[in-house]
Amino acid sequence: MTANAKNGFLLSSGQWQNHYLNNPVSIVVVNLMPTKEITERQFLESFNQLTQDVELTFLYPATHHFKNVSFSTIAKAYVSLAEIENYSFDGLIITGAPVEQLAFQQVDYWEEFRTICDWAERHTKQSLLECWAALGGLYNDYQINKHQLSQKIFGIYQATGINKCNQLAKHFTNQQLVIPQSRHSNPSVDPENLPDDLQIVAENNEIGPLIYHSPGKHRTYITGHPEYEADTLAQEYYRDLKKRLPIQEPRNYFSNRNTGEIKYSWRKSSTQIYQNWLNTFTQQKVGTLV
């Protein structure tokens, strides 16, 4: 079907063209990534592949000090929570952010992040938190802290175990569920002693759970980046090499390292992940932003 942007940099610059939608699913995306336009496109392209029409509204944390864009510029392109807090949406997505090596309380928008998570429980049907946001959500919701890793988890990882009873795992086998990963931290969680109401949907026997779900909080936590395009990890890899930062080649990513050819192995998996998430609430739609 079709994904439209309610706002954002791509829409305002004419880089994304909207089309007629039929009773669209309304989703707020809290875009914490520094590459705002790239991230907008990744989510719009991802949701453009689904079976429902979707309208994305992009939100910024008003308490954040932006380095790559002026506050006035982003305030014109995005909405703040204060502007939409009285509305209801079908879903909320919070992206990853390059702040995972900081303690949660050191992140300038941490309290706003917690407020958004609380707001989502009352104003959306389901929320989806990715990468750093997943770590932050697990800490906020269950007091599960994170720990720094000696080596960055970087590459494409497939599930070695799936909870097939969970709707989020529908249509998947272990080999089919693969997710890009790019992070320096892992949740300090004991899979055998999970908090009440927290389930593991998919896990990898090397790096741990890939997807968690809380039925009670109507929240999904994905430790990676299903939205990543084919060359996103390559750009991160070559960027860090140029900066002489410690970085290993992304695992299970290049089909031919000498030529830089990439195996886009997670595309169908990402579409199914987002489709399964959308299917958890599309039969119980709430009002859209007017």
The pLDDT mean sits at 94
Distance between the termini: 21 Å
CATH names the topology as: Rossmann fold
Which class in CATH terms? Alpha Beta
Q: State the major sheet.
A: 9 strands, mixed
Q: Strand order within the widest sheet?
A: 1-3-2-4-5-11-10-9-7
Question: What's the domain count?
Answer: 1
Question: Helix amount, in percent?
Answer: 25-40%
How many beta-strand elements? Answer: 13
Shape: globular
How many whole angstroms does the radius of gyration measure? 18 Å
Tell me what the structure shows:
With 290 residues, the protein is an alpha/beta fold. 26% of the residues lie in helices and 24% in strands. The strands form 3 sheets. It has a 9-stranded mixed beta sheet, sandwiched between helices. It has a two-stranded antiparallel sheet with strand order 6-8. Strands 12-13 form a two-stranded antiparallel ribbon. Strand 2, helix 2 (36-47) and strand 3 form a beta-alpha-beta unit. The longest helix has 14 residues, at 110-123.
Write a concise synopsis of the structure shown:
Substrate binds at residues 152, 182, 239. This protein has helices spanning 9-12, 36-47, 71-77, 81-84, 110-123, 132-142, 232-242, 267-279, and strands at residues 3-5, 25-30, 54-59, 91-94, 126-130, 146-158, 161-162, 178-187, 199-204, 208-214, 219-222, 254-256, 261-262.
